[in-house]
Amino acid sequence: MNDARSQPAPTGGVRTVPVDGERAGQRLDNFLLSQLKGAPKSLVYKIVRSGQVRVNGGRAKPETRLQAGDQVRIPPVRLGEPADRGAPARGLLEALAASIVFEDARLLAISKPSGIASHGGSGIGFGVIETLRALRPGEPLELVHRLDRDTSGLMVVAKKRSALRELQALMREDPRAGGGSIRKRYLALLAGRMPDGVMSVDAALHVGLRQGGERHVQVQPDGKPSLSHFRVLERRGGHSYCEVRIETGRTHQIRVHAGHIGHPVAGDDKYGDPAVNRRLREQAGLKRLFLHAASLEFALEAGRVPYVLNAPLVPELVEALDRLA
């Protein structure tokens, strides 16, 4: 079976692409990114939301899950050849090669450095997936999930479509309906003194777009259900070093929930407290978002193959904590 990623995206003429069984369950935006080599995510979202992309003749959303046999209409778009972008910088290649924390026949896991996007596009030449594909030419690597550019930590990449489909199905499970068989754990420094014990935040989130296409997330009753659990591990310099477990994986979920309860994530220049961020830069040398994806626990092959993947807290965050002691 041909790999759709290996086929060049034509720039002229509408085409209709059938979804094969290997891509059943994939999100429409990810399917389009695989078809439109080199297209920025902003362009993919634009052509979907404007109705130029159709699934079985009807409009669809970027998060629509495709089924085997679906017919996806893809409009003509203007793209440069993949070679026009050159290759990832040597430093980026070396950083990603050194970041691998686990690998087997199904999966590859990295501890993503802060500052590297999950995908290229919108002025970003190479993200995690493009760089890993450059490191492993010919391997059918696919992102299982994403992390914000400024968040560091565990990211999982599938080496087999079967593993990708199973993991994405686990991530879609609703914990309120007895699902939630994938456990996600983060580490974060929150501004101020959180109360002891576990604080659960059950607040729906809505993703809006600002001028220029920047995503901005807000707590809104008509948003998507979102659930986070915060637990203080230590008090440092008047702030709270916390473990965060999330039962849903919404865009910017932890950052928005933390700000919603009045304890924004340290170093967050989008949803945080500028005065706190400035003091932490001066006192602790914290120059980035203090949010780290620490672990994932799940099982594949219908529960027969358990995984416990970990990415230790990165040195620059450990050093910032030590300065606050």
Automatic annotation (TrEMBL):
Superkingdom, natural source: Bacteria
Stretch list, region Disordered: 1-22
Catalytic class of the enzyme: isomerase
CDD domains for this protein: PseudoU_synth_RluA_like, S4
SMART domains: S4
Annotated keywords: Isomerase, RNA-binding, rRNA processing
Enzyme Commission number: 5.4.99.-
Catalytic activity: a uridine in RNA = a pseudouridine in RNA; uridine(955/2504/2580) in 23S rRNA = pseudouridine(955/2504/2580) in 23S rRNA
Family the UniProt entry places it in: Belongs to the pseudouridine synthase RluA family.
Name the UniProt record assigns to this protein: Pseudouridine synthase
